[in-house]
Amino acid sequence: MEKSDNKMILRIRENTFTAQFSGGNESVFLKGTTLLDILKHHRPPEKETVVLAKVNQRLCSLQQSIDEDCTIEWVPTPSLEGTRAYQQTLCLILIRAVLELYPHQKLLIDHSLGKGLFCRLQHKRAISLWTVKKIKKRMMEIIQSNESIQPVTLSREQAAERFRLNGEKDTLLLGNQEQFRFTFYQSGGVLDFFDHPLLSSTNRVQTFDLRPWPPGMILNFIETSSQNLPPFIKQKKLFRVFHEYGRWESILKIQKAADINEASESGEILDLVKIAEGLHEKKIAHIADTITKKKKIIRIVLISGPSSSGKTTFTKRLGIQLRVNGLKPLMISLDDYFLNREQTPRTANGDYNYESPEAIDILQLNRDLQSLLAGETVPLPHYDFKLGKRLPGATRHLESHQPILIEGIHGLNDQITPSISRNNKLKIYISALTQLNITDHTRVPTSDVRLLRRLIRDYQFRNYSPEHTIERWPLVRLGEEKNIFPFQEEADIMFNSSLIYELPVLREMVKPLLERVPPTHAAFFEAQRLILLLLFFLPLSPNEVPSNSILREFIGRSSFDY
Predict the structure, then answer these.
(1) Which CATH architecture has domain 81-220?
(2) Coil, helix or strand for 300?
(3) Residues near 427 by Cβ (< 8 Å), separated by ≥ 6?
């Protein structure tokens, strides 16, 4: 009897696993039980809707089956991970609707625009209102059908074959020799790759919109902090910059990770470095010519953009081009007008909020600008970040034809320079607006490129760990949403600081930092997501980056002083 009992116990142990939950509770389940079924027995006491789970420090769909002992932490809807799952699930539903309605068309999910994504059909010059309505109607039918969305784990060889079937090049996985398993997601006749777990079923998505935006359409979705669609704001200037950069990439035949990898293998990427930097130089020279040719001399040039867009290097390079044209600009950083640390406003959790315009001594800034424009000699301040104090800086005098270049994240906001007439100001918006995609349906978010830039800069020059930078990034993004993006369409000129070759360089430098983030840290999941993004690109040595490149502001060894 004892032997029989022992065999029974062994069989039970062989066919079960133990799951531990937050708070110390644990339960035994049969191997192959999905997280969705586990959730039915161990729903957290909080009222938030659970959309994903963290299993042994890995983010998973609720449709994922479990076969080993694990820890489980539930992920609610109002979270960064939950919002990403919502948005990418919506993309899957769009992909499926287009495939079912137009099987001979290829859907391209190009780039972000406002609170949505710009999408187009490759073989259509423009998408009609009727086509958009038809696609939206099919999406709603798929949502109402409440079909499950199944994760499918493929080996490297199976993933390569699936990528080929989906129209991707073999070179897509050239840089990804370290990954042996890829998770695709299946709904209807679609089996596609996503870089983030999706929701468990189609009806988990309820709120969205699809609207025409010639030559394509805009897919609008919810944000992290709300279950309501944000208002749609037309951003025609920003779209023109994206569109222009996209045309340039098409000419170079570099639109996806596979194209960059091919260029790396052939050695052509060294020419791409020169071409990308040449484009930047040409654009900056054109902006300098625009300023110089103005009938009325522009006295104030305001240069603004989100974090890690390259504002400082752009300003320095613009200054050089203006000097080539016979002008000698005076450069001012808004950072030097920060209030002393004890006067700086704080966030809700008590951190100093340098992203707020209230952190700037606006009164002193405008006094100095008025004095300079009046021809007076002015002692300009310098902010010491280590001391948290504004200290006396160099004394400056402005000649009658000298422009002032003012660089800072709040430059486009007229509340910062209320004493200066709009007619005397030229506003320049700069951001890293990448057009590169991993696949037709998996884009590289522009905010990810800026975060990668910031990660290496913070580590090298500010002594911040990758964990610190990742944890602070949502606060930075919140500040941008409030204080920068609402003003970007007021810019007179927009400059795209993205470099077509920079992700291979950032892979070489940032990936080792991200790999140091411990699995127990809250930043681990974001670090892993960024690693998987970088793995799609073959690395490129930082030695290939010119010394005056905007990228040098972040990776170091720039010919400029900062």
Answers:
(1) 2-Layer Sandwich (3.30)
(2) strand
(3) 302, 304, 411, 412, 490, 491, 492, 493
Distances in whole angstroms, Cα of residue 547 to Cα of each of 236, 493, 520, 550: 34, 25, 38, 9
Nearest to 333 by CA among 381, 267, 283: 381
Q: Which of 193, 189, 197, 187 is nearest to 172 (CA)?
A: 193
Per-domain boundaries in the chain: 2-76, 81-220, 236-555
Domain range 236-555, its CATH number among 3.40.50.720, 3.10.20.30, 3.40.50.300, 3.60.20.10:
3.40.50.300
Question: Fold for domain 2-76?
Answer: Ubiquitin-like (UB roll) (3.10.20)
118 token code pair: 């710009």
For residue 311, what are the CA distances in angstroms to 260, 304, 344, 368, 496?
26, 7, 23, 22, 11
Is the model's pTM score more than 0.85? yes
What is the Cα Rg of the chain in Å?
26
Model confidence at 222, in pLDDT bands (50, 70, 90)?
confident
- State how far the Cα of 412 lies from the Cα of 416, in Å rounded to an integer: 8
Segment 530-537 mean pLDDT:
96
Cβ atoms of 523 and 517 closer than 8 Å: yes
User: Residue 203 has which token pair?
Assistant: 């009806």
